[in-house]
């Protein structure tokens, strides 16, 4: 794996297996479920994988779900799982592409550069006939040391004020990854107490529409056509949002794959925007008009 900041963000199962087998990378299991009553993870973790618990490696000062941790919290996680700061990492989940992009974005947000997403996740690994038990060789990981805590502009988190300004000014474009029925306000939010609908002016790109039926990212040419059709050129700025900042990262992944770098992720997402709003400064619209 390359440590280039602009390296393609995805890796296929065969290349991931080779990188893990020769000690050049470590797998990170990012499996997460919104529904705590959903079926458990689909089998054992991939070889040598360390865990990233989305609801635990988070900003402790916020009451919103799994807000991005600061770099010190991420460094603590890396120490706990025995992963040197900045070590080459491949992120996967057991659905295909669901929560893995969020963990990829989190590491990139905190300054990690050599990190990619396993395209298709654990199902792609299994479909490729790759083993679940290997003995990785010991490579030469980056030396342990104090993490770089300098500010990052790339992979930034958009604040509530950033989103309000974008809606007021018409840019950056707001891209909402939630299913169409939730965006339209025809289906309730899975988290109780939230209003139904969408931000006025937001564009709905349901995350499943940028994935193949097998759970992999659609070809770059398809995604480039999708974004171009929405008026998003290579230099167009965009803010991705969703229910709580997880599937929004799939949009960020797709933007990165097509060479679009001017993006940020609204970490609070609908969990913040859709909360009760007596002040009326977070307007919500449904398909039939404003609430």
What do you see in this structure?
This protein has 291 residues and is α/β, with parallel strands linked by helices. The chain folds into two domains: 10-127, 3-Layer(aba) Sandwich (Oxidized Rhodanese, domain 1); 156-290, Rhodanese-like domain (Oxidized Rhodanese, domain 1, 3-Layer(aba) Sandwich), CATH 3.40.250.10. Helices cover 26% and strands 13% of the residues. It is built from nine helices and twelve strands. It has helices at residues 13-21, 71-81, 100-109, 121-127, 160-169, 180-184, 220-229, 248-257, 269-273; strands at 10-11, 26-29, 50-51, 89-92, 115-118, 156-158, 173-176, 203-204, 238-241, 263-266, 285-286, 289-290. The protein has a five-stranded parallel β-sheet. Helix 8 (248-257) links the parallel strand 9 and strand 10 (263-266). Helix 3 crosses helix 8. The longest helix has 11 residues, at 71-81. The termini are far apart. Mean pLDDT is 90; it is low at 138-143.
């Amino acid at each position: 794996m390359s440590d280039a900041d602009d390296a393609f963000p995805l890796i296929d199962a065969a290349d991931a297996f080779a990188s893990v087998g020769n000690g050049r990378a470590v797998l990170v299991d990012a499996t997460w479920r919104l529904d705590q009553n959903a079926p458990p993870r689909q089998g054992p973790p991939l070889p040598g994988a360390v865990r990233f618990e989305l609801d635990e490696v988070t900003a402790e000062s916020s009451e919103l779900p799994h807000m991005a941790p600061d770099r010190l919290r991420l460094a603590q996680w890396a120490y706990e799982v025995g992963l040197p700061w900045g070590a080459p990492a491949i992120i996967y989940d057991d659905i295909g592409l669901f929560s893995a992009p969020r963990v990829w974005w989190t590491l990139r947000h905190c300054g990690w550069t050599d990190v990619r997403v396993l395209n298709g996740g654990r199902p792609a690994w299994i479909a490729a006939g790759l083993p679940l038990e290997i003995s990785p060789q010991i490579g030469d990981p980056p030396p342990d040391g104090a993490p770089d805590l300098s500010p990052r502009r790339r992979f930034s988190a958009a604040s509530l004020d950033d989103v309000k300004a974008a809606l007021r000014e018409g840019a950056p474009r707001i891209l909402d990854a939630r299913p169409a029925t939730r965006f339209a306000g025809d289906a309730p939010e899975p988290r109780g107490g939230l209003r139904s609908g969408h931000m006025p002016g937001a564009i709905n790109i349901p995350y499943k529409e940028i994935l193949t039926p097998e759970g992999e990212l659609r070809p770059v040419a398809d995604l480039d056509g999708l974004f171009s059709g929405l008026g998003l050129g290579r230099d167009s700025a965009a803010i991705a949002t969703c229910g709580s900042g997880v599937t929004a990262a799939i949009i960020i992944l797709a933007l990165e794959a097509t060479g679009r770098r001017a993006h940020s992720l609204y970490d609070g997402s609908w969990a913040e925007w859709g909360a009760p709003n007596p002040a009326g400064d977070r307007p919500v619209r449904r398909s039939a008009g404003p609430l």
